[in-house]
Amino acid sequence: MGGLLVLFLMGLYIWIAYKVVRRVSPVWGKALLVLVFVLIPTADALWGRYVTLSELCKDAGLQVFQKASKEGGLLEYRNPDDHWIRTAGIAFSEGKLPSTPYSRLSIVDGKPLLERDVTPKSKYVLTEWETVSIGKDDSFTRHELRIENRVSGESIARYRGYHFSGGWVERFLGSFADSGPQGARCTVPAFNIEILIQSAFN
């Protein structure tokens, strides 16, 4: 049903544009009106993609501000595992699930040692994904994941990306589709948490 409504609205808009343009006599007037009718649904989408998003994307991607000490450990908001200890050489991993006490995992004599109900002592923390709206209409959002100094809150390394949810017509028409508005995002190199942690601790 949503797809049929989208097609109906598009057809209605084209029909209205045709009727208006047909009433104008000068050729230059017709050309100007055609341009106006094309820009009404597309101007903000084109500006958003090729101007605003392009400018924002200069700030996107991975940035390492300083190297973290492997002896400082890493706190995550999930149960600790030995993956970062083995792959990045971090001395210990701490974490917890909601409504559970903190645990600490380290490697002793080549075997994992899990300590339960501990007070975190990690110098660094891996934040959860943070999403922030940019602008008044929420069409731009920033997504960020960081490794921070737990005491000072200073960023050690971060990965940042931006998303544009499309112009007003795309968002309106997308509200009728199951997938929603598609928009565009920064085309930065593929990212995963491992890249962030390896870059910060190595």
Characterization of this structure:
It is a single chain. This protein is of the alpha+beta class. The protein folds into 2 domains: 2-65 and 125-201, no CATH class; 70-122, no CATH class. 37% of the residues lie in helices and 26% in strands. It contains 5 helices and 10 strands; from the N terminus they run H-H-E-E-H-E-E-E-E-E-E-E-H-E-H. The protein has helices at 2-23, 27-56, 83-88, 168-174, 193-201; strands at residues 61-64, 74-76, 92-95, 103-108, 111-116, 124-126, 130-134, 140-149, 155-164, 184-185. Strands 1, 2, 3, 4, 5, 6, 7, 8, 9 and 10 form a 10-stranded mixed β-sheet that branches. Strand 3 and strand 4 (103-108) form a beta hairpin. The protein is elongated and about 90 Å long. The termini are far apart. 20% of the residues are buried. The model has no long low-confidence stretch (mean pLDDT 85).
